[in-house]
Amino acid sequence: MRILVINGPNLNMLGIREPDIYGKKTYKDLCDMIESFAKENDVEVELYQSNYEGDIVTKIQEAYRNFDGIVINPAAYTHTSVAILDALKAVGIRTCEVHISDVNEREMFRHLSYVSYYAEKSFIGLGFDGYIEAIKYLAK
């Protein structure tokens, strides 16, 4: 099982950006946790982070025929990117959406998720554990 884990803008700033919302753990902590879980569970993961919408679209397109699943936290692009939604639809790869915070308890504009129109399941407000739950879901 090969899973691509995509993180959108500012996730590389974890531990610095709004720690009252996202916690004090860093992006490296997140990556280490995901890689450790994957190794223990015989799942191959590739981690990718970009602040650029077009790069994320390109990475999704490159996943075609190369990955069995996608775990994506599109961050701010969740609420704005039809391009990311269209890329996910185009490749037809099983996808789970993840959000560290509970976006439904935040500002109204964060309640809309274009990715959710395609994702099989969303893991929202579970912190870093949402990534693990999404990988478990796709791997079963």
What's the gist of this structure?
With 140 residues, the chain is an alpha/beta fold.
What does this molecule look like?
- This protein starts with a strand and ends with a helix.
- With 140 residues, it is of the alpha/beta class.
- The model has no long low-confidence stretch (mean pLDDT 95).
- It has helices at 19-22, 27-40, 53-63, 82-91, 129-139; strands at residues 2-7, 44-49, 69-73, 94-99, 121-124.
- It is globular and about 40 Å long.
- α3 packs parallel to α4 (82-91).
- A 5-stranded parallel β-sheet has the order 2-1-3-4-5, sandwiched between helices.
Structural features:
single chain; 140 residues; alpha/beta; five-stranded parallel sheet; 5 strands
Give the topology, please.
Elements: E1 2-7, H1 19-22, H2 27-40, E2 44-49, H3 53-63, E3 69-73, H4 82-91, E4 94-99, E5 121-124, H5 129-139
Parallel strand pairs: 1-2, 1-3, 3-4, 4-5
Helix pairs in contact: 3-4
Mean pLDDT: 95
Approximate shape = globular
Please provide the count of β strands.
Answer: 5
Major sheet, described briefly?
A: 5 strands, parallel
Percentage of helical residues?
25-40%
- As a percent range, the share of strand residues is 15-25%
Distance from first to last alpha carbon? 10 Å
- Return Rg in Å: 14 Å
Number of continuous helical runs: 5
Strand neighbour order, sheet with most strands: 2-1-3-4-5
Structural class: alpha/beta
Low-confidence segments, ≥5 residues, pLDDT <50?
none
SSE order, as H and E? EHHEHEHEEH
